[in-house]
Predict the 3D structure of the following.
Amino acid sequence: MKVVVQPLPKDFDPPENGRSSVDSGSAGFERRAHIKAFAGLSKARVLLEARGHDREDLTPWATGFDPVDECLPGRSLNRFGLHEIEPLRPTHMPSLTGFAFGLLSRLRSSQPIIWCVTSAQVGEYGQLYAHGLQRYGISPSQIIFSKVHRPVHLHFALEEAIKTDGVAAVIGEGPRPTFTGSRRLSVLTREYGRPCLLLGDGAKAAGGSAALTRWQIAPCQGAEDPHDPFGPGIPTWWVSLPRVRGGRASLSMEPSSPPAITTNQKHNINQSPWRIVWDDQTLRFHSASLFRHGTVPTRHPAFRGPSKTMVG
């Protein structure tokens, strides 16, 4: 990371005893402003260069699903930025949790994850199921909960969580911050070198956002889980990426028309919105099958066992 420092004016005189030769009028004020700006940028350059050496060895934060990674700048997410994940409908909020943990699993970090949530969200959707995190390769001991009662306290908790040392990522579940609030979070993620994921709806009501990416998630019926045939199935989602700074955004999904498998997607699985599934064996996302589990009946001759003969 490089910091560009603009040179001082040619007629700038070095200050004597901390004061400029002209301290009165607009000229003196302008020169004092140049002194403060030069000192502040020099200090910022030293800090950014020092932190830049620590970030060179970090692995890319990719999803593992090529059609999505190709839309991201550098085929990976920014590890030091703000990212938003919103549901297609308010009733789709629980599906955001699984997708968020899939992204966090791709960080390949064993450091703690701070989860900031409002009490209203906990009362509406409940708390996390600790044993379910094993599907994503995340230990329950990594999760640190921070529950607040008022939405305005959530944004303060997020800022303090980002400033905490030794944290892999920060998640905020609740109302979206305003554009100014998202800008503050974006600056802090770059300064302290950790990502922040915002889960929730209301991006339009917030009046804009400074997030680098915005994901749109909708649940999708998945294949039967071989280890739990009576469960909800393997985690599967409809995913679109309507906002990517520096990348290639996809079309957003409309709540009035839920996504469905079209004829074009049967021939091109790379078309957005993508129907992706989480693989708990390889810990990565990949394309979901276009056919339901058990499409071919088990009574088909190809599934029959060897013919039985009477003996004796």
Q: What stands out?
A: The longest helix spans residues 25-54. Residues 150 and 223 are 39 Å apart (CA to CA).
